[in-house]
Each structure stands twice: as C-alpha cells, then as structure tokens.
Amino acid sequence: GAGVSQSPRYKVAKRGQDVALRCDPISGHVSLFWYQQALGQGPEFLTYFQNEAQLDKSGLPSDRFFAERPEGSVSTLKIQRTQQEDSAVYLCASSPATEEKLFFGSGTQLSVL
Amino acid sequence: AQSVTQLDSQVPVFEEAPVELRCNYSSSVSVYLFWYVQYPNQGLQLLLKYLSGSTLVKGINGFEAEFNKSQTSFHLRKPSVHISDTAEYFCAVSGSGGYQKVTFGTGTKLQVIP
Fold it and tell me: Which residue of A has its CA nearest to B99?
C-alpha cells in the first residue's frame, strides 16, 4: 500500500475485554514500532520489531500487552483484560532502516468504558 | 536513555510572523534529532532530521532547525508562518548507531492567528 495502515480506526471496549489492533506497514520496511499516545501527550514507545524479531519490548506497560509480527510484515498489538487507563491512540510506524524517518499510520483510538 | 523537553505546550502567533518552537534533549551518547508534525486528524509526518554534519537542518514547508550540542537544543524555526502551519509539533530523539528507540516530547501546539 501507499502508507502504513491501521485498523480499526476506532475501537470501543468494555473494561475486561480483550482487543487486537492491526498494523500493515509499508511493504519492505524492516523496522516496525508501536507507540501509545494519551490525550495531550506525545507518543510513548511500546515495542520495536526488526522483521519478525521483537528486539525491544521495554515500553509495554504490563503483561496484559502483547505484540507480534510473525511473518515480518503485519503486526498485531493485543491488550488483554482492558482497563480504563488503556484508553489512548495506538500508533504504528514503520521504517526501512533505523536511521531513517518513521512513517506513521493514522492510529487506532481505543476507548475503554 | 534519552529524553526530550518541549517547554511550550501552546504557541500562538500571527500569520506571516516568525516562530520558534523550543526543544531541549538529554542524552549521554551521540544522538539523532527529529521534528515531526501532526495536522488535525492526520498521522505524524517528518519535518526534518539531524543525523550528522551541518548543524543547520532545513526541512519541508520552510521549516529549519539548528542543532546546538553545547546547549543540548534543537529549536525549530520558520521566518513567516501560514494558517496551514497550525498543527502540533513533536521533537524527538534517538541514540545514534544501530537500533535505538525514538523518544518523543510532549508536543507544542502552534496556533496561527489570521
């Protein structure tokens, strides 16, 4: 595709529900990042993949958060037993190399009620 | 670890006036520096980046930034703003070399007043 695609664009979940957020990076991009952006804040790093390898998951806030990229392209961020504090925009970004700019998707806005 | 401080959460400026958005970073290693812009209802996009070389970096839409190592700053400037520059601007930093996660500041909302 022309850019990074994220789905769904909006997700409303009841507290305790599991959610899965999808990211389709630009074809051929090796690096893939997930960020969490709370209202009025800058993006906060969650995790990083190089191809299918998850090289850094230091930003995942708890063991309820899990990310995968099994074939080195599409990535899924899963949040189990969602809590209200998980409400945020989840951004995915890809890059052809680590020094290159990040190409961001439009994000998934998650609201946990 | 690196961190970024954007002291100004909002900057109002009249159209055609100059603007400077401030960014200071903290790092114990060499860094790469970035400015990203987020227009309403759009994803973040890169304005400019500093990797090495000339400390004055020119980006898209007439923006430029200057890397000042002694002051650990990377302020963004534009000599004459347009209404279309109204957006949120994020400064970001990463360590240099190999994989390094990109850390973002809290953002500065630029409001251009007609």
Answer: A98
Q: How would DSSP label each residue in chain A?
A: --S-EEE-SEEEE-TT--EEEEEE--TT--EEEEEEE-TTS--EEEEEEETTEEEE-TT--STTEEEE-TTSS-EEEEESS--GGG-EEEEEEEESSTTSPPEE---EEEEE-
Chain B residues inside the 8 Å CB shell of A33: 101-102
pLDDT digit string (tens) for B6-58?
989 999 999 999 999 999 999 878 889 999 999 988 889 999 999 888 899 99
Question: Minimal CA–CA distance to B49: which of B79, B93, B7, B106?
Answer: B93
Query: How does pLDDT run across A21-56, given as a tens digit for each residue?
Result: 999 999 999 999 999 999 888 999 999 999 999 999
Question: How many distinct helices (H) and strands (E) make up chain B?
Answer: 0, 12
Hey, what amino acid is at B88?
E
Tokens of A15: 């507290």
Alpha helices in chain B (DSSP H): none
Determine, for residues B104 and A43 on separate chains, whether the beta-carbon distance falls below 8 Å: yes
> Which residues, at least 6 apart from A29, have a Cβ–Cβ distance to it below 8 Å?
A94, A95, A96, A103
- Local structure of B84: helix, strand or coil: helix
- The total number of residues written for chain B in this structure: 114
Q: Given its phi and psi angles, is residue A84 left (phi above 0), alpha (psi -120 to 50 degrees) or beta?
A: alpha
Residue of A nearest to B96 (CA): A99
